[in-house]
């Protein structure tokens, strides 16, 4: 029976009819362009016999709409006076460039097997060079932990790359449930709720809660954060955390009472209307949380804190203006947006060191700084190389060193007199800090 005359075809929707007609046209065009022997030898290696696939791809490529660059107002009615959108956008970008707050992203591919190294493609997407990364939020290197990567790959093979829907529509898997239970246990709460990002998790703020995004995994006997370390988690009504920093994955969560979590689950638009996190990422995050709750996690945290203290001491001994920060992030004040960016660009281009300039609006104008985040995997030798080249670059751009630097209060600027490192930790590094100070 002729397809066009069939009753099924006639009853089909208009969209389906159009699809069938389009496919018939494509098949006809492929047949005409690939006319040849009536017998085709099919390759067993998955090749493309007679170029059929290539011909099909060429045809589909021709059907793509032409890319056209135009101004936004070109699409607006000519009969009315319209706002100059493009001119407005260009002006705002020029303002960012003129005050040196315009952001240019560095293009780097991190190397899992030689963390914290990365391939830098910032100058060219064809050629690359290897750089050391000093500003990553992957504070403990958990994104490349063999068990975490193994869990991700196994789950990817079994369950695919995506979740398949929102949490309410086929997007809740056993991985979601297991990870939420693990996070609730980590913080000593009744329940937890996963979000696609920590930013979405912050939107529900009806009750004051403790933001532990930079602390989970890094502090406390089980990595529960500052509340875990100080023994005050029972006093925290809501804890907000992230899977995208110390745990080395992606996503955010809150942990609280069962009734509050159920209320957020039922009413929070950012949760209800967002596609669920992929099972493969949750499997990796679950493994990461379990590792950092174990003895291995405690070893990683101790090594991390040692490296942070050593790096901070080396920077202060060399006369660099270290801002007192009791966390694992070491800010070095530059107080000039242009020079801050120049320091980072010089370190990257000349010395293969990637450290990030933090300018307005992340910090107030005049408070521009370098954000240095050592990991347990940065060696003392890497720190030595970093400091030597930072000092060279610092002087090169016209910045001054202090005769003696010590941590200072962020408000009154008075020095903070405290022992930065214990004697045991100093002996662990075999006097490297004094050696670097003498060389500087």
From TrEMBL:
It is a peripheral membrane protein. It catalyses: succinyl-CoA + glycine + H(+) = 5-aminolevulinate + CO2 + CoA. It comes from the Eukaryota. Its cofactor is pyridoxal 5'-phosphate. Coiled coil: none annotated. It holds the Pfam family Preseq_ALAS. GO terms for biological process: heme biosynthetic process. One of its GO terms (molecular function) is 5-aminolevulinate synthase activity. It is an enzyme of class 2 (transferase). Catalyzes the pyridoxal 5'-phosphate (PLP)-dependent condensation of succinyl-CoA and glycine to form aminolevulinic acid (ALA), with CoA and CO2 as by-products. PANTHER family: 5-AMINOLEVULINATE SYNTHASE, NON-SPECIFIC, MITOCHONDRIAL, CLASS II AMINOTRANSFERASE/8-AMINO-7-OXONONANOATE SYNTHASE. This is 5-aminolevulinate synthase, non-specific, mitochondrial.
């Amino acid at each position: 029976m002729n397809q066009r005359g069939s009753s099924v075809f006639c009853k089909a929707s208009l969209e389906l009819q159009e699809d069938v007609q389009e496919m018939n046209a494509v098949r006809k065009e492929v047949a005409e362009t690939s006319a040849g022997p009536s017998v085709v030898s099919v390759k067993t290696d998955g090749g493309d016999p007679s170029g059929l696939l290539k011909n099909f791809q060429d045809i589909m490529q021709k059907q793509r709409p032409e890319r056209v660059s135009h101004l936004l107002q070109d699409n607006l009615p000519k009969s009315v006076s319209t706002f100059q959108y493009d001119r407005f956008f260009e002006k705002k970008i020029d303002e960012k460039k003129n005050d040196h707050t315009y952001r240019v992203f560095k293009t780097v591919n991190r190397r899992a097997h030689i963390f914290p190294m990365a391939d830098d493609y910032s100058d060219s997407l064809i050629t690359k060079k290897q750089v050391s990364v000093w500003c990553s939020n992957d504070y403990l290197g958990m994104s490349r932990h063999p068990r975490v990567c193994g869990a991700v790959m196994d789950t990817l093979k079994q369950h695919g790359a995506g979740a398949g829907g929102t949490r309410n529509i086929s997007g809740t898997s056993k991985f979601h449930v297991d990870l939420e239970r693990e996070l609730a246990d980590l913080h000593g709460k009744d329940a937890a709720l996963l979000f696609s990002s920590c930013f979405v998790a912050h939107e529900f703020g009806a009750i004051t809660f403790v933001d532990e995004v930079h602390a989970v995994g890094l502090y406390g006997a089980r990595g529960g954060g500052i509340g875990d370390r100080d023994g005050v988690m029972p006093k925290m009504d809501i804890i907000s955390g992230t899977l995208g920093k110390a745990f080395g994955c992606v996503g955010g969560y809150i942990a609280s009472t069962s009734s509050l979590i159920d209320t957020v689950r039922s009413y929070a638009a950012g949760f209800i209307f967002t596609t669920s996190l992929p099972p493969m990422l949750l499997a990796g995050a679950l493994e990461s949380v379990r590792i950092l709750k174990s003895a291995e996690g405690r070893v990683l945290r101790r090594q991390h804190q040692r490296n942070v203290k050593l790096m901070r001491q080396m920077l202060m001994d060399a006369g660099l203006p270290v801002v007192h920060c009791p966390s694992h992030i070491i800010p070095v004040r530059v107080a000039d947006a242009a020079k801050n960016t120049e320091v980072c660009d010089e370190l990257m281009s000349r010395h293969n060191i990637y450290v990030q300039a933090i300018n307005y609006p992340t910090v107030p104008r005049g408070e521009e700084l370098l954000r240095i985040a050592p990991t347990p995997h940065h060696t003392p030798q890497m720190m030595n190389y970093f400091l030597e080249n930072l000092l060279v670059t610092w002087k090169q751009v016209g910045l001054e060193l202090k005769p003696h630097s010590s941590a200072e209060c962020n408000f009154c600027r008075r020095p903070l007199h405290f022992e930065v490192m214990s004697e045991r930790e100093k002996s662990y590094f075999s006097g490297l800090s004094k050696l670097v100070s003498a060389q500087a």
